[in-house]
Design brief:
The chain is mainly alpha-helical and 76 residues long. The protein contains 3 helices and no strands. The protein is rod-shaped and about 85 Å long.
């Protein structure tokens, strides 16, 4: 084999091996979560409700967790 044949064979092997690495990644799936502004508004509403009830400590954490799970509405 000639030197140019060997170089051509090596380049072809590299092109085949590197080809998938250059392939474009698929687009990420859209997220179905609420936006951060919406989450902040829900958190603020729950904090305001907890303040109005005068909750502190464990009771406050529990109330806010349930409130946020219900989308900013006081748990029943």
């Amino acid at each position: 084999m000639t030197r140019s044949s060997i170089v051509a064979a090596v380049l072809l092997a590299l092109a085949i091996g590197v080809g998938p690495a250059w392939a474009e990644d698929p687009a990420p799936a859209p997220k179905a979560t609420t936006s951060s502004a919406s989450k902040k508004a829900i958190s603020k509403a729950c904090s305001d409700q907890a303040n109005a009830k005068g909750l502190h400590g464990k009771e406050r954490r529990k109330f806010r967790a349930e409130c946020k799970a219900h989308g900013g509405k006081a748990p029943e």
